[in-house]
From TrEMBL:
Belongs to the CoA-transferase III family. Frc subfamily. SUPFAM superfamilies: CoA-transferase family III (CaiB/BaiF) (SSF89796). NCBIfam families: oxalate_frc, PRK05398.1. This is Formyl-CoA:oxalate CoA-transferase. It comes from Polynucleobacter brandtiae.
Amino acid sequence: MTKPLDGIRIIDFTHVQAGPACTQLLAWYGADVIKVERPGSGDVTRSQLRDIPDVDALYFTMLNGNKRSLTLDTKTQEGKEVLEKMIKTSDVMVENFGPGALDRMGFSWARIQELNPKMIMASVKGFSDGHSYEDLKVYENVAQCAGGAASTTGFWDGPPTVSAAALGDSNTGMHLAIGILTALMQRQKTGKGQKVSCSMQDAVLNLCRVKLRDQQRLDKIGYLEEYPQYPHGTFSDVVPRGGNAGGGGQPGWVLKCKGWETDPNAYIYFTIQGHAWQPITEALGRPEWATDPAYMTAEARQDKIFDIFAVIEEWLKDKTKYEAVDILRKFDIPCAPVLSMKELAASPDLRKSGSIVEVDHKARGKYLTIGSPIKFSDLEVEVKPSPLLGEHTDEVLTDLGYSADDISKLHAAKAV
Ligand code: COA
């Protein structure tokens, strides 16, 4: 079956997480993604947090499936010549080196355009071009702090807190993938390539837009009625951390279920959606709350919201998180169990949907990885294991027109 991105060749000059997540996504959908790595060591994640000695770490294998690996020392003259050939024959180059690294290597945007005016050059950096922090190297949590996630996450009496979700890394990679596909569409119309950039700060901020909404509301009226600080606590002039409060105007909280004393994830998220109030009162066995003016409206409930959550927790005391959700779903109440990674890994639903897949790696054997979170009616995404370091070096060089003799010389010169 032909894939949507069949025929698109991508030079994958990425490392760690932000860039590799982007190119892996494009590889799933059919692009020929050639991961260019330094001979000998490759992407640092191959050896980071290893669970099996001398075998590529899961950090690498879970971000580099469906790709080919070429080792190339782009600081040698021979290596630069190979990269030039690749640029001339590829559609997209993706990189997430520290600021200025590509220019220092001799591959500025101007030079790349000279080599191939149709090239789409896509970059992830910590901060956008021209930003006063543009020279900074950035990792995940740095971006979460710079993009507004940390200052608004956690509890009001604790420090800024980062999320376990890779809002800075994989999220930026997803944004970049949208940028690349957009530039490919535009190239179909104009015949020209372009530079596509995505900063980690901007990608985090994009996901924190409701907090920018809240800042403006706070500036205007001095309080935020859906935060736990309202109405009994106080507000300063900055958006506070709201614990587990719902961000969209539906009050909600993480509530204890049976077994919470020993199981760190025996909780559900419970949402008191306005129009679900009546079913909630029924589910809780408190039907009188449906008609009591002190409880009838979201506004009336707000000053008692934690008392209401306490009543719900009392109701949850003898129910596991799964039993609770099974009851609440009958009343159309938006809720879910708090799921551990162990539970997600074993979930038959996620295996069935292909959202978690098992693949077989040459050196590691079987491992779990994430499958495409985007589902298509006319595309079956096959998730393949990551390549070994340099597994496809000779194959890629042959594709580029190098003879066996030339390839031997490149090996001898330690350029590949
Ligand atoms: N052959 C020869 N040299 C190579 C090479 C290859 N195949 N691949 C990379 N290099 C060199 C680069 O030219 C650069 O050398 P230089 O600094 O002498 O010019 C160096 O390796 C890579 O540097 P850098 O990307 O800055 O790596 P780092 O380990 O110091 O920093 C990051 C890592 C992630 C902090 C940094 O890359 C960064 O800020 N990236 C942008 C933001 C980002 O994506 N961060 C999140 C990662 S999940």
